[in-house]
Target: Tautomerase
Amino acid sequence: MPVYTVTMSRGTLNGETKAALAAEITTIHSAVNHVPSTYVNVLFNELAPSNVYTDGKPAHPLIINGWVRTGHSDEQTTALVTQVADAATRITGIPAERVLVIIGNSPARFAIEGGRILPDPGQELAWLAATTEQSSGSR
Amino acid sequence: MPVYTVTMSRGTLNGETKAALAAEITTIHSAVNHVPSTYVNVLFNELAPSNVYTDGKPAHPLIINGWVRTGHSDEQTTALVTQVADAATRITGIPAERVLVIIGNSPARFAIEGGRILPDPGQELAWLAATTEQSSGSR
Amino acid sequence: MPVYTVTMSRGTLNGETKAALAAEITTIHSAVNHVPSTYVNVLFNELAPSNVYTDGKPAHPLIINGWVRTGHSDEQTTALVTQVADAATRITGIPAERVLVIIGNSPARFAIEGGRILPDPGQELAWLAATTEQSSGSR
Model:
């Protein structure tokens, strides 16, 4: 359900670091927002170094945009950005000053996965149970 | 007015399939949200295969992010994501389990096109009429 | 705090034009939304020309997506998109008809930078003062 996009200059992170960061974001999201890790997507969008500016000058921020379903509590979402930002600095070595994490959201009914409208926060178990039944039934 | 961004691993779709998907998303959006097709943008953001993770492991999801103006009904937006997801599976052959469609929104007054603030949903005809007058007048 | 992403076909803008546009967006954002320019990020996401469609056909729009904290006034946000769109046409020479600017937003508490949750609009001075103290203290 959620999607995290990590945007940065090309070559900022090597493959091993990207894999470690993707795994850690997945673990954090799953724990904080109660979503099975199989539903967590992490993308890395690498831009040409000449395409990244801060303060109007070429720069090297690490920008992580996440998308979640509307309805998680403010405390939950703040915990999410805090833990993701901490993980980014710990795993990549990039200082916190250059790490920006932003979570956007839309109502669950504005999103679809596996052919079914997403459940509102708190309704995941029923939704997941139906997925399992559907899969079993189709075999 | 709307923008759809299809994100996936590089090489997932060939040119013909991308063109067919762009055309179909355009047709669906125009019909469901009452926007002339000339205002519908579809972008494909192809990432290195090593930059796409699901469940902390390299994966091949097809993620479609749309942006629309706030104020369309929930039913309309749910119809939109359902039809776009169906079209994605039908045209690309990627199973529904790997297709995720998410629609975000902002107030129309937070967006501008052709030098004019966008109209709220339902106000398109007056806005478009003014566009035509403006174009005619400038010739 | 804010992030602007300019999306277009590869090769639409040369390096000098990108630098000028990044600088101007930074100046505008800083003036309109009262954020020090050191916190304004501008990214250019260049797509293969075959990956950009308008009306279901290959096209060359210039699409600028901005993200700001929720709570700025509507008037402020409308001023922002108007000035950014004007600057894009003035600096790039791309006619207004092909320029689309969209501002999205999330609550400040859904975002973190420099290891600290962002301040709500209007609370920047206290947040920035604390940053300075923190930096001085750590030296």
Summary: The helical segments of chain C are 15-33, 74-92, 124-137. The radius of gyration of chain C is 17 Å.
